[in-house]
């Protein structure tokens, strides 16, 4: 499936509050479709040097948007993760049990809240690391299309620029995901017949994934994982700028992130597929 279609599906299924934070991929692609291939002339009257300055400014604004959202979300996830880690530590050590709870039912409610919060934060972490990867991949596709349409060589210098931006620095978030998954292993049994050692009740993960507090994040996360898996499928032109290369998993624990190891910052290749909507038109960016 075409990257643009996958990207659009992801936007439809992600959390509503996140949709406006993504690359305006479709609009940028429509804009570039107004340039005659390799002609070096924009059909709608703008000289190419001036157009490139403007286009770079637009992409830089998109990256600033990515950075602001990513950094804010990462900071929020770190704060919430630290609070959850402290709560889980207190549960595991029995600290403050008698001071905090007056009954087993009260403690059970507290444990349920911890589990819900853990499921939500893990889902948001996966969504955020996918946010970084999908925007980076979309940016590469737009830059490749720009080079193809104009005959310019903007892809490599701008990709190098994007490579050093905060939204691309996903290593701390990846560590948070691994820590969160370790807590999930502790707080949720692997088999349905296992009973919660803290409260004596069924504590299965499946039970919590469909309740109101966790359902939206769960559905968005599952949809995102499906998109990443689709993009990992081998293409006819597997190379450092193909989607299957960018989203390949080195092992079963891969988060699907585009990282320093698999980024295309030192390669230049042809586009992996043909554009499906060459004839589309757009008059302006809104």
Name the average pLDDT. 74
Which secondary-structure class do the elements indicate? Answer: mainly alpha
* CA(first)-CA(last) distance: 27 Å
Characterize the overall form: elongated
Spatial extent as radius of gyration = 22 Å
Helix content: 55-70%
Task: Note the total helix count.
Answer: 10
Number of strands: 0
Task: Tell me the fraction of residues in β-strands, as a range.
Answer: under 5%
The major sheet is characterized as: none
Oligomer: single chain
Which consecutive residue ranges, at least 5 long each, have pLDDT under 50?
Answer: 39-45, 190-203, 264-275, 277-286
SSE pattern, N- to C-terminal: HHHHHHHHHH
Protein name: SPX domain
Structure commentary:
The protein has 286 residues and is mainly alpha-helical. It has a domain at 3-95 and 123-170 and 212-246. The chain is built from ten helices and no strands. The chain has helices at 3-13, 25-32, 48-93, 97-100, 104-150, 155-163, 171-187, 205-209, 212-232, 243-246. Helix 2 (25-32) runs parallel beside helix 5 (104-150). The longest helix is centred in the middle third of the chain and has 47 residues, at 104-150.
């Amino acid at each position: 499936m075409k990257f643009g279609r996958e990207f659009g599906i992801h936007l439809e299924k992600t959390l509503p509050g996140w949709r406006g934070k993504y690359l305006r991929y479709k609009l940028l692609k429509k804009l570039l479709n107004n340039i005659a291939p390799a002609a070096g002339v924009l059909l709608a009257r703008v000289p190419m040097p001036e157009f490139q300055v403007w286009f770079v400014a637009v992409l830089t604004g998109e990256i600033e948007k990515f950075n602001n959202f990513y950094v804010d979300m990462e900071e929020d996830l770190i704060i919430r993760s630290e609070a959850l880690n402290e709560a889980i530590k207190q549960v595991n050590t029995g600290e403050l049990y008698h001071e905090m709870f007056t009954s087993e039912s009260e403690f059970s409610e507290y444990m349920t809240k911890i589990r819900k919060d853990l499921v939500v934060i893990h889902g948001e972490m996966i969504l955020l690391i996918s946010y970084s990867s999908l925007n980076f991949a979309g940016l590469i596709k737009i830059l490749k299309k720009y080079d193809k349409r104009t005959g310019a060589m903007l892809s490599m210098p701008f990709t190098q620029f994007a490579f050093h931006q905060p939204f691309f620095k996903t290593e701390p978030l990846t560590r948070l995901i691994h820590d969160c998954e370790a807590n999930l292993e502790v707080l949720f049994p692997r088999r349905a017949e296992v009973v919660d050692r803290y409260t004596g009740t069924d504590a299965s993960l499946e039970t919590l994934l469909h309740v109101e507090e966790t359902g939206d994040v769960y559905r968005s996360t599952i949809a995102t994982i499906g998109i990443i898996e689709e993009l990992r499928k081998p293409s006819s032109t597997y190379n450092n700028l193909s989607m299957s290369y960018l989203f390949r998993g080195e092992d079963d624990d891969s988060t699907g992130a585009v990282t320093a190891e698999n980024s295309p910052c030192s390669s230049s290749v042809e586009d992996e597929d043909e554009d499906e909507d060459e004839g589309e038109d757009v008059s302006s960016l809104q």
